[in-house]
Design goal:
With about 160 residues, the protein is α+β, with helices and mostly antiparallel strands. About 25% of the residues lie in helices and about 30% in strands. The protein is built from five helices and seven strands. It is globular, with a radius of gyration of 15 Å. The structure holds coenzyme A.
Length: about 160
């Protein structure tokens, strides 16, 4: 999908809230996206508060002047490590490399703004597409920090 290559990250703005909310169809999808802390259904206008994490930065992936195709956040969870979270791609464009593009740019933005030496994330073990995406970006499972349901993954803050 060539469009993915013309996309860049920009900050989340209020006009994006409805679009982002429309990607989350039900409680199961909501939990897979954002974990058990974000209850479904939710009001789009409440998203900034619902997604708030101390020190977090939120981005959308989009072509210039266009609607978002993806969303993700990063925040520092432990010193030296930047954590990626709430990664999601519009259901209409999944499977065409947008998720990979989103993650590559999100990793670069996270490292640039925090100077972390490691990047981490947590994913449900049965989320095969997401696990494959992260493995393809050099994230490795850390079983000691994982649970029966979720996999904690980590990579060095270098080029993929
Ligand atoms: C996970 C998600 C972000 C991936 O985005 P995407 O744009 O579909 O991903 P990509 O097209 O970049 O593909 C990523 C990898 O998954 C593979 N993949 C994509 N769709 C797939 C499918 N339906 N079945 C099997 N593999 C698939 C791709 O081949 C690619 O693997 P590769 O790099 O080894 O070739 C997207 O599916 C999504 O938004 N899911 C719902 C929210 C979610 O689960 N977020 C993760 C929270 S941790």
């Amino acid at each position: 999908m060539t469009a993915a290559l013309e996309t860049t990250l920009r900050p989340l703005v209020p006009q994006d809230y409805e679009v982002l909310a429309s990607w989350v169809a039900d409680a199961v999808a909501c939990a897979r996206w954002a974990g058990p802390g974000l209850c479904f259904p939710f009001h789009a206008a409440d998203l900034p508060a619902l997604l708030a994490v101390p020190g977090a930065r939120s981005y959308v992936l989009a072509e210039a002047g266009a609607l978002p195709l993806g969303f993700g956040q990063h925040w520092v969870q432990t010193p030296g490590a930047v954590h990626l979270g709430r990664i999601i791609v519009s259901p209409q464009v999944r499977g065409h490399g947008v998720g990979r593009r989103l993650c590559e740019l999100l990793i670069a933005a996270a490292i640039e703004s925090t100077h972390a030496t490691a990047v981490t994330l947590r994913v449900y073990r049965d989320n095969a597409v997401a696990v494959r995406l992260y493995a393809g970006l050099c994230f490795l499972p850390v079983e000691a920090e994982s649970t029966a349901e979720t996999l904690f993954m980590k990579r060095a803050a270098g080029p993929t």
